[in-house]
Amino acid sequence: MYLVGNGAGFSGDRVDAPIPVVRTLIRRGLPAALFLETLGERTVALAQLERRRDPELGYEPMLERLLAPILADCFHHGIPILGNFGAANPPAAARCIAQLARRLGLPELKIATVTGDDVADSIDLGTLPVHEADEALRADAAKLVAANAYIGAAPLVEALKQGAHVVVAGRTSDPALAIAPLVAHYGWAMDDWEKLAVGAACGHLLECGSQVSGGVFWDPGFKDIPDPANIGFPIAEVGPDGSLVITKAEDTGGLVDLRTVKEQLLYELHDPAEYITPDVVLDITGCRIEQVGKDRVAVHGLAGRPAPAMLKVTACFEGSWLGEGEVSVAGPNTLARAKATADVLLRRLEMRGLKVRPRIDLIGLASVHDSDGGALWHAHQGAEPPELRIRLAVEGENRDDCDQAAREVLALLCCGPAGTGGARWRVTPRILTRSYLVPREMVPTTVTLLSAREMN
Amino acid sequence: MPEVPLHAIAHSRAGDKGNRVNMSLMPYDPAHYAVIGEQVTEARVLALFAHRGATRCRRYDLPNLGAFNFVVDDALEGGVNGSLNLDGHGKTSSFRLLSLTVTIP
Question: Is A100 among the domain residues?
Fold first, then answer.
């Protein structure tokens, strides 16, 4: 039996999550690996912008905080750590880990850096077929921020076989972080599609951390979980024959049951017959799940088909600007004051000739489910809400226009309706993404292994 | 024949890819699988997102898992790329689906 634990499901996850996972892996005494998934689709673009500011940045900002409490335990118990926390700068992330290791008295910790996913300079995107794109988006080469291929498990397997204690990658497919230790441990062939399908399902179920063990699941009174402030992150038990059981860290909150596993199995999945990863195409149409103990769910019936010939490349471009402003109203006549404020804001943007596309939310009445035109809150009839927050959001090519639009919300503090307060406003740059397909041979990868002692 | 919101009999999670949202839908009681299969049609789910310009809804049935997967195209007014919505990923969409009502025989 081999154990795969997950200690982070996105950049921004609970930083203390890996601690009970590692404690459980050690207590169980089986061969094991831990992976951290911290790289969202556009996280890499934000990281690339950081790197432009400072060449030693551009990796996961919480990296040291995540690893400091667990690095020594993982090293001493032979639990390799894999992560895409290298983001836009895996070599700098490796240097950060080396420094941490030396400080913890682990100079022999071996760190593998996997590079090659960054194709911004090596591949002319204009020559590639477009995979996913909103055709209205302009893909201006001059505004390219990042272009990264989703690489598969192979270089991570190589790193583990070379004896890496920590594998630092940038853009990998999320499931590859779980497939790699399984392939390295069991020696599965990279064309054993049935086994790789199990690895891909394991990765898919674990890649969002607590989402399979109670996170974004709990719904008080309907789907209660123990101790949502302390949800245990997941651990998979994978057998040599491809058996798969999902469980979680011991002595934690959360739960693993048929409901949590179903929700995560279908998360961000479109055609259930075709979940495409760089290593295998997973088919869950024959999948069955079974509760085999407390917080233990077995996953059966996974099928795999050959890996695609092409890899996905996600390119990120500098986009337009987003301006946002919010104010609150509360008490008697709230709805009338909020609606009138919305009208006034739109009128102000028009009067000032600001070239922006606006949207208004009445938070508390209708916002996240509403359309840009506010169809739901315009149609609202019923009880007077006790308070509302009015949000203006605008998008435009010109930063100053977006800033001025957002400041119109601020101006309501004096010019708005009676009892207006709590203004906030900000302007942020937008990142546009576009996906392409690239033949996998155009994305060579490199694995560099050094001990912490050797790195400076 | 009581009419209830889906939230009373089922659970759901939403995820996105670009301007497309997917929502799983699972009844708590296997006896309600057929009720959902009959009443929660692609057309009804598409209509839930019509005000946001959704163009197409596809339902995948997974009887082995006791689950459905709804994939709605152009439901996010641009998705994280272009949306002005606070929830550009459409993660809250699952609870719009759960507000749809069904009649329990």
Answer: yes
| Residues A258 and A289 reside in one and the same domain | yes
CB contact under 8 A, B81 and A372: no
pLDDT higher than 90, residue A125: no
Structural domains in chain A (count):
2
| Co-location of A183 and A281 in the same domain | yes
pLDDT digits (tens, 9 = 90+) for A12-43: 999 999 999 999 999 999 999 999 999 988 88
Residue by residue, DSSP assigns A320-362 as EEEEEEEEEEESTTHHHHHHHHHHHHHHHHHHTT---EEEEEE
Q: A431: closest CA among A171, A147, A145, A172?
A: A145
Amino acid, res. A293:
G
Identify whether residues A11 and A39 lie together within a single domain.
Answer: yes
Question: What range does the domain containing A346 cover?
Answer: 315-435
Residue A134 has pLDDT above 60, yes or no: no
Assigned domain for A133 exists: no
The answer to whether residue A124 sits within a structural domain is no
Q: How confident is the model at residue A136 (pLDDT cuts 50, 70, 90)?
A: low
CB contact under 8 A, A322 and B18: no
How high does pLDDT run on average in chain A?
96
Closest CA to A369 of B86, B37, B27: B86
Record: contact A289-B65, CB cut-off 8 A: yes
A5 pLDDT more than 80? yes
**ipTM > 0.90 for the complex:** yes
We find that the CATH architecture of domain B3-103 is: 2-Layer Sandwich (3.30)
Q: What is the rounded CA–CA span in Å between residue A190 and residue A66?
A: 31
What is the C-alpha separation between A412 and A338, in angstroms, rounded? 12
Answer yes or no: do A421 and A449 share one domain: no
Residue in A270, A368, A369 nearest the CB of B17: A270
Pair (A176, A221) in one structural domain: yes
Determine contact, residues A208/A217, Cβ cutoff 8 Å.
no
| CATH label of the domain that carries residue A408 | 3.30.70.100
Say yes or no: A281 and A332 in one domain. Answer: no
Q: How far is CA A246 from the centre of its chain?
A: 20
Question: Nearest CA to CA, how far is A27 from chain B (Å)?
Answer: 33
pLDDT interval class at A380 (50, 70, 90): very high
Residues of A in contact with B24 (CB under 8 A): 262-263, 266-267, 269
Chain A residues whose CB is inside 8 A of the B13 CB are: 216-217, 263-264, 266-267
In the block, residue with structure tokens 């607590």: A210
Contact A394 B20 (CB under 8 A): no
Q: What is the pLDDT of residue A129?
A: 82
Contact B22 A268 (CB under 8 A): yes
Q: Which residues on A lie below 8 Å from B84 (Cβ)?
A: 322, 357-359, 372, 393-395
Q: What pLDDT score does A63 carry?
A: 98
For A:50-69, CB contacts with B below 8 A are: none
Residue with tokens 């509360």: A330
- Tokens at A430, concatenated: 């937008």
Q: Judge whether A422 lies within some domain.
A: yes
